[in-house]
Amino acid sequence: MKDIEFIYKDALVSRDEVKETAGVLTSYIGHLSDISKVGKTAPYKIDYNEAGSSINLPFDSSILEMVNDAVKKVDVKNLKYIIVVGIGGSNLGTKAVYDSLRGALDPFFANKTPKIIFADTNSPKLLKDIRTVLEKNIEVSEEVLINIISKSGTTVETIANFEAIYAFLEERFEDIKKRVVVTTDHGSKLWEKAEKDGLEMLPIPQIVGGRYSVFSAVGLFPLALVGIDVTALLNGARVMHDKCVKEDVSENYALMSAVVLYLHNKKGITIHNSFFFNPELESLGKWYRQLMAESIGKRYTTDGKEVHTGITPIVSIGSTDLHSMVQLYLGGLKDKFTTFIYASGNSGKEAVPKNLVFPDLVEGIEGMEFAKIMDTIFSGVKESYKKGGLPFIEILFPQIDEYSLGQFLQFKMIEIMFLARLFEINAFDQPNVEDYKKEVRKILLSEK
Amino acid sequence: MKDIEFIYKDALVSRDEVKETAGVLTSYIGHLSDISKVGKTAPYKIDYNEAGSSINLPFDSSILEMVNDAVKKVDVKNLKYIIVVGIGGSNLGTKAVYDSLRGALDPFFANKTPKIIFADTNSPKLLKDIRTVLEKNIEVSEEVLINIISKSGTTVETIANFEAIYAFLEERFEDIKKRVVVTTDHGSKLWEKAEKDGLEMLPIPQIVGGRYSVFSAVGLFPLALVGIDVTALLNGARVMHDKCVKEDVSENYALMSAVVLYLHNKKGITIHNSFFFNPELESLGKWYRQLMAESIGKRYTTDGKEVHTGITPIVSIGSTDLHSMVQLYLGGLKDKFTTFIYASGNSGKEAVPKNLVFPDLVEGIEGMEFAKIMDTIFSGVKESYKKGGLPFIEILFPQIDEYSLGQFLQFKMIEIMFLARLFEINAFDQPNVEDYKKEVRKILLSEK
Hints:
- Two copies of one chain form a homodimer.
- Chain A has 448 residues and is of the alpha/beta class.
- Helix content of chain A is 44%, strand content 13%.
- The first copy, chain A, contains 15 helices and ten strands.
- In chain A, the strands form two sheets. In chain A, strands 1-10-9-7-8 form a five-stranded mixed sheet, with helices on both faces. The first copy, chain A, has a five-stranded parallel sheet with strand order 3-2-4-5-6, sandwiched between helices.
- In chain A, helix 13 (370-387) links the parallel strand 9 (336-343) and strand 10.
- In chain A, helix 4 (92-102) packs parallel to helix 8 and helix 10 (253-266) packs across helix 14 (402-423).
- Chain A is globular and about 65 Å long.
- Chains A and B meet through helix 5, helix 6, helix 7, helix 11 and strand 8 of A and helix 5, helix 6, helix 7, helix 11 and strand 8 of B.
């Protein structure tokens, strides 16, 4: 298997700066590496004592076995739609992998089943449309499965969506209870209730935060169900994991990336632009956006010092956003660090024809492969960044497949753990989310 | 018709600051108002002498007539797919309106035709999928129409996509030439070639820039073709236009919004978060993202002073991003100004059922309408912003329909013209886009 490549020669940081900053993390790397040794001891039963141990999920064969068993119980041949009811960490990883592999036009291929439909927020329009899709296309209950995913089991949007979708399916199908799989923390209130009702259940290890949970049943079950090769996904993650617990910064992608992001942030660069040159990777960008925002945007350090730290993650798509955002990136405020992500491979042979309807409008494109056009644009953009003195790193996928995606996901989760350490903040909590939830509860109470 | 509302009480700016800054724009407002008087003189024939006159597109009845004539020539009943081949300003406005009205699940409703498929970037995966959709679902040429849209007529991605799609349709349909509509600048090379070939054509007024062209044939033709009420869209734009050429800042939404954005930027707030609480409005956010980024992200002032100015536009979706970005927004760096956009109306009666499968997990949601849940979350979020001292304004849609969308689009285009004036930069050019294009050309030449 070819691995993803990481290139940092245009990061615009000095060797000394990198070495010094990476040095700060030596003991933490040792610590992660120790956790990882626990994880890799046969029979891969991991000791989930601390949040960082989520990096060992890919080594936990008991999770994969459990997921495979759950998939076997489903009559996949007749299954048309999996409704993933979940929001934030409960669906972004799944959506990232699914969209990367299926592409934006997946819903147009009605016969390519099973398909995932994501029910995240409580949109009247979205709910109505899901209802209509199911009414029109589902004739027997075996064609649908609801996977409700909530770590706490008390997420408002998730419970509301589940109840509404369940209710309208229940009107049509007596055995709809058999078409539900509940993914939640072992021991949550939802878990207890689901157990009492005899529903199919999959546990999330309690210590694993939502945004680090893609390699638990949260991501693996729905992905395996639609036929995505989760074993390859986990293989990629394992290989990347081994790279990212090395002390040598020049070999450790996550470490180098974190150090470079940190150094630029110290110099006032407050935006991290993940610039994907394959449009099907946009949801992968949104997964990373959550990972970075929730982990790094913190009011207090772990020592309780008020800092209001943070890097704002943004996601761009090439070449689409060259016609939208790049004027700002090249001409505007120099407040961005860019990670370019590009897969030039598995492109097939799509090409411009040799005989054109409109010759002479664009020089030299006759017969050119689409992948080649994008390669050229990608190179041109990097050149313009260099000339503009804009710092960037590159992540190159050999192709977009499960193995590469597994590598990327693991790379980024460890990068964020390192980055949080450098900022001296907690990578695993999200205390300020409570701020608005508190206000929502107040309003609900005042209206009673 | 109910108009959209604009609320600025939580903008955290003083009356005096606003008054002083708005005063700077008095003569420019007078100027826009003068242009608008030209536009409103019967028979609505506009003098397109300067870029800003794009604000008069909604008054130009000759455009609507031309578009309606072109629509009449198409056998809409049999039409299944319109392939809009265009990128940046050539498709973002169309996609904004289309997605806002159709929603994310539109492709699941195969019978709801005609549908638009957007071909923007040169993705091998996207092209292959478009080819497959057309191969599987199109039997006669009347079922498909290609609308190629390029202002200059020389956009690489657009020409490449068009040639590839045309070529594989030509293999199957002899008369495919009749299934093409070319939208381009009157007199461009593409225009001349299309004319020679006898293709159907629609002109873009040369002075109107791509990102200001949604009310020209660029947006109106494909939208009208799928049955969207473009007359209502233009009506909304006209009403908003009249508001936005008023001198009184408290009545002029565009002026107030621009002034507030400018004042916060002067205080170091460099990110503008457009936070939409209806997920179907995400593409509308992406349209605005281009409008702001290309117009405001400038290296030089109109006087030639090097400034590297700019506000980075980001787009958030409620409640989805409450589970992704809001930790950063509430806890992280205070570098963002937020515009909340929300339509509470036209929600139907989607609701949580009264009897729950999982009672007691979330208090008080039994029987609650989805719109009510979102209203509550929206209010809670605003409260948490107030308590955190985070500045915001609100744009409230009475419902999501053509009229409201027309208002919003016009509001934002005029806002950006005002904002550029305050920054003393050109709102209508994008000189640095040339930077990467130059590099692309160099690479192509060196490989010859």
